[in-house]
Amino acid sequence: MRTLVSPLALRTPHGRIIYWTILTVTVVGFTGAFVFPFYWMVSGALKSPDELAQIPPSFFPKSVDFSVYKEAWDQLQLGVFLKNTAVYAGGAWLLTLAVDVSAAYALSKLRPVLGKLVLGAMLATLMIPPMVLLLPTYLVAKDLPILHLDLLNTPWAIWLPAAANGFFVFLLKRFFDSIPKELLEAAEIDGASPLRILWSIVLPVSRPIIGVVSILSVVTVWKDFVWPLLVLPETDKMSISVGIASLSAQMPQNVLIASLVIASLPTILVFFVFQRSIMAGLTAGSLKG
Amino acid sequence: MTVTEEWVRRAQSGATDPRSPDDHGALRRAVGRNLTAYGFLCAALICFALFSWYPMIREIVLSFQQNNFVDPGEWVGFDNFRTVVADPAFRSAWLNTAAFSGLALVIGYAVPFVLAVVLNELKHAKAYLRFVVYLPVMLPPAVAVLLFKWFYDPGAGLFNQALDAVHLPALSWLDSTSTALVSLVIVSTWMNLGTGTLIYLAALQSIPGDLYESAELDGAGLLKRVWHVTIPQTKLILLVMLLLQVVATMQVFIEPYLLTGGGPENATVTVAYLMYQYAFNFGDFGGGSALGLMLMIVLLVFSTIYLRVSREEAER
After folding, report:
1. Tens-digit pLDDT profile for residues B126-142
2. In this structure, which CATH number among 3.40.50.740, 3.40.630.30, 1.10.10.10, 1.10.3720.10 belongs to the domain A70-286?
3. Which positions in chain A touch B59 (Cβ < 8 Å)?
4. Closest-approach residue (CA) in chain B for A50
5. Which 8-state DSSP code applies to residue B157?
6. CATH hierarchy code of domain B84-315
7. 3-state helix, strand, coil in chain A (%, to 5)
8. Model ipTM?
9. pLDDT of A241-273, one tens digit each?
């Protein structure tokens, strides 16, 4: 497809030189800005505290000894933090899907009285960033209204707020709206219950959007810092980000860096595998809000 | 459509559904359908009520009350606001937050757009460049921030060593009032750049090629084509991203929390960080909520503009 620079201009010798120069600069620049910090982190973890303090720094670690990773794993109880985070993200994912899919289905296909008002109220929450409601939301988690339950240090403190996501309801509803009515009416005439229709017709055709919502919800919970910092103060309950941050001051530099490497692996791995869905999710809501 | 409307419609065209021969059946089915719908909705309603709607009201209530969370709160009018405004850190926090947002715009707003324009022209290494630019976004922010804390180390840190390698004087980064805030902006820009770049890239790909073609035939040079075709064609998304970035950067918390603790000399205290301090360091939820409410009102202004703009975009 034709872009800013015409294909004709690119074919001239002059154009070619410029093109290859810009390409080289871009590749080198991007590698330097976005890949090199990762190299520095991974190689930094392999250096001894003395080597880390050395000026000028060594580009390659003097000895490659991976035992620092084991040390980080044990000293910072990274296994516990990672398991906690997996439980928080996994549970939040399941609950978010169950809650938001059924809400979007009801709003899109069952269209109850005041449905528009409910949708409006859910979308209105997108106008107010969670950060400004941090304190009252924390108080709710600490002392749940009416039931007077204390959710602090329980996974529910992560799961329940994660499910209240107006953006997901919006994405799902918009997708469900595009499912042809005839498809559902046929099933209805055959006597299928709404739950059955949701499960056997709506969900199978909604795989793409469910994929996008799934990855977004897992990654959001995994990356979150402020909320788990407040609601999971007990060391044994901390998520990986909060755990490392709160123990970082007492660690030798190389152990801390090794723990950063370990903490960044899961999301980067997810990115490797689900790159397409993640990039689709990026443009899903932002372009046509 | 309301139930009654639909009921009337069904009643009038009674033949559309073989199972509702009379009005009675239609009404019963409408009631049943509503009950089912609210059955599907109830879990979401509870979650939203507890963690989104109620906190909005609670924030307003808290900011006008003195509370120890044992006795019922005592109404104190604007006292909490007065306390917060009288705090010397209040002025710093708002100035720093505004400066952080402003600097983030200066340093970070144009960059993703320029990168996207360049990426859109390249025919090689496309997948690699796209992957790499988004890599920092995938890092948990706490990890990225702690990584940069090490890079900022005034002694053997990467940045001062890099400056030294090109024979520039070392900087004290996080330790000096003049560079601390900029240092926070650099981390924040680094870890968020990829989002903007990929969103712009998607927008650029939907620009029809013949617009460039005819601009070129009219004799428009490269920069003129950017100015007269690329920017007008992406105007709305540029505006949307501007507003989103302002709203996001005004809430900055994790960078000052992990890097500087608001210092040196309040140079990096932000509104969100001060709000956190009020509640969790000073135990003053009233003052914290007052700050939260003020920030909410400011952000609502931007969100409202955002909503208008994105509606315009959707209608296009």
Report:
1. 899 999 999 999 999 99
2. 1.10.3720.10
3. 132-133, 135-136
4. B156
5. -
6. 1.10.3720.10
7. 75, 0, 25
8. 0.90
9. 999 999 888 888 889 999 999 999 999 999 999
